[in-house]
Design a protein that fits this description.
Elements: E1 2-5, H1 8-20, E2 24-31, E3 40-56, E4 60-78, E5 84-90, H2 104-117, H3 131-141, H4 146-154, H5 158-172
Antiparallel strand pairs: 1-4, 2-3, 3-4, 4-5
Helix pairs in contact: 2-3, 3-5
């Protein structure tokens, strides 16, 4: 996911991540906004790692992050600069799960979406035979309300996620 960073707290955080080759967490905001005072957020988020960065005009930084693992926030605190630091537990990695024949159309639609989106979305690795991978990418890319995306990404059963996404695709008028 490409991001543009301009707030001092996030510029400092990204700099720390680049220096230490570490990642940072992204959680959906429950109340508040991305700028200004620290927002409240959902407890399940994604640990991300910076895969690319570049300086942009107006003291902005462009970064591309890649999601690696889901986590649950155990405790958090807001620093004086309004950056939130948290203690988290990494959630178990979802195991590769063969794609059921009834979900092949959804995987094909995902493939077409990624081709249209281009870089960085269509950059390998891809696994169109893995229900976990297909479901997570569809939940990420479909034009669904953010709260619905959060619900889908919190599911721990990749087949349930894909079944719910198949219904979403049908409602959006796509092949499911």
């Amino acid at each position: 996911m490409p991001l543009r960073i301009f707030e001092p707290r996030y510029l400092e955080m990204v700099g720390d991540c680049l220096r230490s080759d570490s990642g940072f967490g992204i959680c959906l905001i429950r109340d508040g906004s991305e700028t200004g005072r620290a927002a409240t957020f959902h407890e399940v988020g994604t640990l991300c790692r910076i895969s690319y960065w570049q300086r942009l005009p107006n003291n902005m930084l462009g970064i591309t992050v890649r999601g690696e693992r889901r986590f649950r926030v155990l405790a958090s605190r807001t620093l004086p600069n309004q950056l939130t630091r948290a203690s988290v537990e990494l959630l178990p990695e979802e195991q590769r799960c063969p794609l059921a024949p009834r979900h092949h159309q959804a995987a094909q639609q995902l493939c077409r979406m990624l081709e249209r989106l281009g870089l960085p979305y269509n950059k390998p690795p891809t696994d169109y035979e893995d229900a976990t991978w297909v479901g997570c990418r569809l939940a990420e890319l479909l034009p669904l309300p953010l709260g619905r995306k959060q619900q889908l990404l919190q599911l721990s059963d990749p087949l349930q996620r894909l079944e719910e996404l198949r219904e979403e695709l049908e409602q959006l008028g796509g092949a499911g």
